[in-house]
User: What shape does this take?
Amino acid sequence: MGSSEKSGSIAPSFTLTPFRAFVAIALLWAGIYLPGLGTLELQHEEPRRALPGLHMLASGDWLVPRVGSDPYLRKPPLLNWAIALSCKLSGGVSEWAVRFPSVLATFALAVIMVGVAGRRWLGQEGGLIAAIFFLVNFTMIETGRLAELEALYVALTGIALVLWMTSWRQEAGSWQLWLLPAPFLALGMLTKGPTHLIFYYGIVLPVLLFGKNARSLLHPAHFLSLIVIIGALLCWAIPCSFAVSTHNPIGVWRFWWDQLASRASTESDQHFRLSAWLLNGPQTLKNFLPWTLLLPLLWRKETVTMVAGPAGSSARDLALFRGARWGMVATTVLMVLLPKGSPRYIYPLIVVPCLLLGRALTAETGSSAPDWLASIWRRLNLLLLAIISLGVALTPFFARGNSKILLWTSIEGLLAAGIWLFGVANRAPPPSVMPAKSSRLTMQALISGAIAAIAMMIFATLIMPRIDSANKHRPREVAGAIRAALPAGAQLWVLEDSYRPFWYYLEPEVRYFHRLADLPSRAHYILLPATQSKTLLEDPILRNAPPKLILQIVDNEHKAFDLFAPAANFENPG
Assistant: This one.
């Protein structure tokens, strides 16, 4: 009778296997990070990241990144290389191809969290929760879909931290402990320079101190790892500095040093603002939402007790937990207090609270988590699911017969119905068959991820196209208007006084110049800021046949530009 009651009360428990965890993460990643990836035009710093990649494809010079014709040396070139390779492999330049390396890097770190930390340290449920927390937070949903440095930088630093923390917890040998993360830290050097080592050692050093294992820093494997990390950057930087300035390569190195030193100084082109500096702390906490609300769990006595519990635990578990926890806090405070500190500087640490929460919520099958957490989480998921379901139901009224939107709406509706039927809406089982608390928390984390995926699908299909077409002064539209004013096959020359985002959409048939005296005789079509037009028209060389203004246009930053054509084009029309 007890058996029949049990079978009638609740479906058989769901067993989380490594394969199912990988499938869950892949589906959540695809649902959150792929929809609408190529819909919005490149914005903010994205064109600046993409332009060197386009130059590499066109010129074959993969050593010196360039924006326009000038070397762009403020950042190392790994993201430029990745964008160029993505465009080459995808068959052409597009917003989707330019952003895909960031999206792929985000997926790689989530997979490592499940496959390495989940199997060797956190357990399958802990690894899955940690990966979901990483994929579903404000910072990663925003930066992980952009062709910016942050996603690649976070992924490489995060993978290195996952590998080191897991190896140390497993008491791996020193060669594995130090050399396994080294290639990813080396790639991080080629992404944004050495600053990621602050976050890496900001976690490593406290863990070693709590674990009374600081002597491992003196092992030859550690010094070899530093040679690999620094050597990767030098292998690019040395030949690049000579390629940029054969006569004065030291000047290039001075520029790099100034760029690095300026991060900790108020002396720059940006004035120190006390109000912005005071908000760094709150904004850092905001960036980890919605999981910021769970961070106090890391300081509960019950959590520490369960992490240090005897069942399946070791002395290193507690040292790893405490060291990573305090290292995360100390490094965050240090970066926030910098005069030029910014919440985005903390992004490489984002993997650490995800891992620690994964451990805290599943230690001793979730016994360390408060009893009310699963119930409140379930109610919040119900509320969010109701809101998302209402959005799905209203979407067809805005589709206006668009078959693509209707297809996406059908998929979203099926997903929402599946969550209602098999996840949130099921009645609570009787205490005799109640699954472990960790399993219930894992289910709620999965549901939160699925809700985020549906929300992103709605946003991509319904809102993104309207955002993309709302402003006629966006870079794509500005470049399109310029191209439309030129004859087919015409060579455009652009005054390179300062970088403009619309340059990306003018490539590849565009050339750049710095002074009017540098213009060759074949330069017939010229684009320059409106403030420079008078100088062009007064040039003695052009006095006999002054060029004609054929277009005036304003870009997204309200900068005016004039497009000139040779006078001969107008002397004999037709």
